Amino acid sequence: MKRIHRLLFSVSSGVLLSLPWLGLPGWILFFAFVPLLYLENFFFKYKKGFPSVSLWGHIFLAATIWNVLASWWMTKVSLAGVGAAMIFNAFLMSLVWWAAHSIRRKFSSALGYIALVSFWTTLEYLQFNWDIEWPCLQLGSGLANNIQIIQWYEYTGAFGGTLWILLLNMVLFKLVRSYQEKTHLLKVRITYTTAFSLLILVPIIQSLFVYHTYSEKKDQINISIVQPNVDPYTEKFDMDSEEQKLMDFIRLANEVTNGSTDFIVGPETLFEHQYLWNEDDFRSNHFLMQVQHFLNKFEKAEMVFGVSSFKVYEDEDEITASAQNKDGVIYDRFNTAMLLNKVGETQIYHKSKLVAGVEKVPYQKYFSVLKNSYIDLGGTSGTLGRQAEASNLVSQNGVVIAPVICFESVFGHYVSEYVKRGAEVIFVITNDGWWKNSRGYKQHLLFSQLRAIETRRSIARAANTGTSCFINQRGQVLQATNWWKEEAITGSINKNDKLTYYAKHGDFVARSAVFVSVMLVLLVFVKRFR
Hints:
This protein has 530 residues and is α/β, with parallel strands linked by helices. The chain is built from 14 helices and 14 strands.
């Protein structure tokens, strides 16, 4: 294989991998890795003429193309920071392939392919669980454009999709090779054809059956969603601007709220004045008083919305690693979801999954000197405090709500923790205006659809701008608002208290891959030293 052909294989795979994130069907991923598998096989076949590192460069090229094409919209926040993250992620992806290829060279093809699947899934799991998260390119999430064929995510989560895609690519590669190699027997071709057919058809048929037969239990709550459409790049944070935002929000909510409304849902950081929302003194908050006055017009409506709050620490034992010191006052700032009920009582949840480089400094307890180094987006950017685990909000009439803030909707296992703690519905509040009119806000919506399927929970999604909507328990988007438009919608969603297999057991597919990866590494070391 000539060098130019090898480069074309790398480029073609990188482009194919990116297409589902650009709005094309997710099933493209079923064959997107095949060109890279051809490359890997070429360097394995001619290993005497090429060192193992030869494969690494080709995979790195493909991974870089994939990262850039699929995630370029993130550079609207920071070209240098996001660019570096893309390169680092591409390096990790290529490292996985190089490690698996090296195992195949030194031991066996079977062990090499097992290593590729387990190492890749382990890397994805790592991307969700370390402090420099980059989870948006999870393979299983790439199928979110095709919710009809992934209803079985209620059992495996999106990591099941990752495993499915990897196996399909490998079996398809073997199938094509069996027809290209004249030495392969008919029996081998039939085996691969049967394996590929079963592997692709069984999950799809089961999913289509569930998609068309799934019925939600009728237990409705009525919700109004407000999309205020504030430009985050020109937004001001003085008192006059905050007052205007409040008036606009109340005006829009009033258009769609009536006596049967149970909840009014507003977006993430609806109010962002840094020193207005003191968690020790909510009762005297002028804005809350006005919101409470508005709620009194309706029979039972409660409100969930986002604010940028802060908490002052008087006791040294309470001070956290993220705490700020301003003129001797030590405090934490939070990206907060708040529930305000009819009698003026409040409940709050602090965003836990923070965006690295924007809302937190990774591994801050080791690099506390960098706590003030971040990409300044105004409002809630900077090093924020966070709570350790998911917690629900409970309304006066007992509805248990999972308050998922923005980036948190990407994390399937984290969202399932709300559900394990009793959440009957999910409210996603977000501000997707940072990504402007790009694939960013569209990709972000797809993650909410995945979470609805995995947990079988209905979702009310309130965005500052982007897409506000309702999502049913099959992942269907209903009453979607338009981009960059001030809107308010009203609708009903059903509560559900049943736990899916995924909600009970979380990312067991990924944890199994981690176990296999550890065993493989130990096996390699033992074999090498023996």
